[in-house]
Structures are given as structure tokens and as C-alpha cells.
């Protein structure tokens, strides 16, 4: 543990769209913010999306200015590849905590030139492209990462030293160790987001077994207008698909996998992707197998109708099993809910619209009073109707999908609520101290 203590008004934990929004709002009011992000870059899930429903605006065009504003704000200090631990109330007006900075093995002098990436001999799965391709062991996470600094995935590194030899900025540092620093803060905002459901937990749907079954996040990456794909291909043989199926509610509204609730975004993101596919592959047929279509938000119903108008087929059907044919096509066995009959259909690419699950990291961040969970393991909102950003600990607030599944507009709205609640709390704390 370093000797110094860092002092901030607010610790925002999580640098997705919700955390960024809270940090910017409070920083604009003059509060000093520490934004702590576990990943190598801020931006959360949104930075990896193609376009957004229901406007079909480019996700990167919305999120990158927000990421830059957060990174450049004089009142916001960002720590990436870091976590906050042992958050504990020290007095009625403050919290102590520990900032844990994990080693990146590359110093901040990195220019992002990627010469090291070319030379590194080891290739592993690229989690930022959702395993569609590989990446090197030393890598810039993705093209619009912020900060644009390389990192070494030390678990897979063979310590050959090639990156060190070629780096023109001399910034490889294998001696880096974890740094623990004391934090003193007045308030905390938890914006740690969500996790994606792992479809291998439903083996009958064939994910991981048949290559031409992908997740919606993998489709997002293929549809992104920037690098590295900008084209949709079947993973197994690189063929352009022409008959694509979507299966909704994979891991959502499903007691058998322990997640009985609706993920709120899958109906609409699948409808969005279907429309984007109609543009990217004009000759392709797209069929969406659904249980119910939940188009409850502003403009969502029109968006759904628009997809039907474009030729997307919606089948009310529950898919029981997927099997692969020799040519890589997939046979779907499903119950046609309208007729009650079991049917089969053939598609050359299947997309699983995987659900949203809670990220339970917040349960291990606190010491003493623990932050309470709701029935579905999200951050509990004890007064959801009147003060939705309040949590079970006074002075700790929640924003975005850390409190439940929601889309980007709602994540931003809840971030607004968390900012207002936090500012009002800080005003009270500061008045008490004067
Ligand atoms: C396939 C798909 C497509 C989608 N398409 C759309 C769309 O078109 N339109 C739309 O409105 N919504 C869409 N969504 C939903 C959208 O992604 C979410 O609403 C949004 O990303 C929520 O933002 P967030 O900041 O709450 O969470 P996240 O994006 O999950 O960000 C949370 C951040 O916290 C960090 N973090 C996690 N744990 C810790 C920790 N312990 N310490 C520090 N940091 C931590 C994470 O690394 C991450 O950066 C889609 C979702 C999916 C899965
Ligand atoms: S030392 Fe590690 S990161 Fe560097 S080139 Fe060799 S394998 Fe890659
Ligand atoms: S570590 Fe060195 S070689 Fe690699 S991107 Fe950074 S500056 Fe370039």
C-alpha cells in the first residue's frame, strides 16, 4: 500500500455510458471525481455496438465524444485496469476505500503505434471482438480504446522480450506490480453494468458446438461500420449468409437457467440488427423466433413495424433444439406457438439474442456494511419509486444496468438521477461540515 491518500468528492465505479454520464454531470458541477474502470479502456458495452435502436444512429459517433469528454475533463481522474476495494463508511460524511491498480506492463509513454503487436509471436482469442478473431498477447484493446495504450496479457505471455526490443518509446515494463492506494471519498456511484448470458449453458442450442451459431454481440461486431469486419460472414466457411435466424430470450425469462426476468433490450437489438442486415445483405432473408415482442419504449413499436415492412419475418415460436447439417446449415426444431405444432426450418446462420445478467462485483467491494442485492442479484433500490438512485447505504448511489436490465436512453436517465441524488447528498454533507 502506498503511503499517500487520494481525496475525491465522488468515486464513480465503472466507465460505461452510465458511469461516464454521472462523472461528467458531477464534474461539471465542480466536484472532483475519480472514475475507476476495471477494463483497459472506458466505454463499456456501448463502445462495441454497431448502431443503436430505434434511431439507427452510429453507436461510436455517440459514445466516442462522451468518452473523450470524460477523459479530458479537468475534474475527472480516470484509472483503468483498476478496481476499488474495501469501501467503508468512516464517519457520517465519508468513506475510506482502496484503489487497486493492476499492472499493464506498459507505461503511459506508449504512443499506440502497435509495432509491438506485429512482432509478438503469441495469438490468443480476442475478447474485444467476442472471440471472432485472435489478438496478440501485447495489444491495444480496440481501435477507439481510451486510453490508447498497449497492455500485456501476462498470463499468456511467453516472456520472449520481442516487444521490448522493438518498442520505439521504450515503454515495456515487466517490473510493474499491483499498486494499492488509500482513497478518501464523500460519496460512491456504482455503475458497474451487466454481464452477458453464456449460451453454452443451454447445450441444446448448439453454441460452441456449431460454428455458424453466434451471439448477438458477435453480430454487433460484424455490423460495426468501422474496423475490423464491416461485413457479415459465416464463421465456419467465410460464406456470406443468406438466410439468417434470430432466437430471442436466450438466457432471459428462463427459470431453468436461473434468470426469470426479461432483459429488456434483446427484442429491440435483434430487430435493429435484422434491419441492418437487410441493408448489408440485401438478398438475405431474416427470421426472428420470439416468445413475445416487447416494444414498449418510445418509437419501439414503429421500429418493429418498420422491420416487418422491410421484410423481416417474425415467427412466434420456441426453439427447442438446433442441429448442424454437413454443409454447415442449421436445422431449427421449434414449437410454432400460433398452431401448437412442432416444425423444422433451415438457416445458414443463427444468432442467439443472449440476455443480460447482473454483474455482482459490487458485492465484494464493500467492507462493514455490504451493499444489498435485489431478488435478481442487481444493486437493490430500496426506494425505487421515489429515489431510484439510492441504495441500501447512505451516500452510495447506483446508475445504469447495475440496478437492472435497461437500454442506453434509460441508462443515461438513471445516470441523471444518480447525479442529482449525489449532488444533493454532497451539498448536505458539505453544509454539515461548515
Ligand atoms: C448485443 C447488445 C446490443 C445492444 N444494442 C443496444 C441498442 O441498440 N440500443 C440501446 O439503447 N441499448 C442497446 N444495448 C444495451 C446497452 O448495451 C446497455 O444499455 C448499456 O451498455 C448499459 O450501460 P452501463 O454503463 O450501465 O453498463 P456497461 O456498458 O456494462 O458498462 C459498465 C462498465 O463498468 C465496468 N466495470 C464492471 N465491473 C467493474 C468493477 N468491479 N470495477 C470497475 N469497473 C467495472 C465495465 O468494464 C464497463 O466498462 C445492447 C446490449 C447488447 C448486449
Ligand atoms: S514478451 Fe510477451 S507480449 Fe512481448 S512479444 Fe513476447 S509474448 Fe508478446
Ligand atoms: S508498447 Fe511501444 S511498440 Fe507497443 S504500441 Fe506502445 S509505443 Fe508502440
Number of domains: 3
**Residue ranges: pLDDT <50 for 5 or more in a row?**
none
Average residue pLDDT: 95
Find the CATH topology of the largest domain: FAD/NAD(P)-binding domain
Q: By CATH's scheme, which homologous superfamily of the largest domain applies? A: FAD/NAD(P)-binding domain
Distance between the termini: 32 Å
Rg measurement, Å: 23 Å
What would you note in describing this structure?
The strands form six sheets. Strands 1, 2, 5, 6, 7, 12 and 22 form a seven-stranded mixed sheet that branches. A seven-stranded mixed sheet has the order 14-20-15-16-17-18-19. A two-stranded antiparallel sheet has the order 3-4. The longest helix has 26 residues, at 408-433. By secondary structure, the protein is an alpha/beta fold. It starts with a strand and ends with a helix. The model has no long low-confidence stretch (mean pLDDT 95). The protein has three domains: 5-101 and 178-193 and 359-433, FAD/NAD(P)-binding domain (3-Layer(bba) Sandwich); 115-166, no CATH class; 197-356, FAD/NAD(P)-binding domain (3-Layer(bba) Sandwich). It has eight helices and 22 strands. Helices cover 22% and strands 27% of the residues. One iron/sulfur cluster binds next to helix 3. Flavin-adenine dinucleotide binds at residues 13-19, 36-39, 44-46, 49, 52-53, 83, 191-194, 196, 216-217, 220, 265, 269, 272, 359, 361, 400-401, 406-409, 411.
Would you kindly provide a brief summary of this structure?
With 434 residues, the protein is of the alpha/beta class. The chain has helices spanning 17-28, 59-72, 115-119, 162-166, 216-223, 266-280, 300-310, 408-433, and strands at 5-13, 33-36, 51-52, 57-58, 76-79, 82-91, 94-101, 123-125, 134-136, 138-139, 151-152, 179-190, 194-196, 213-215, 243-250, 285-290, 313-324, 330-336, 341-347, 349-354, 356-358, 396-398.
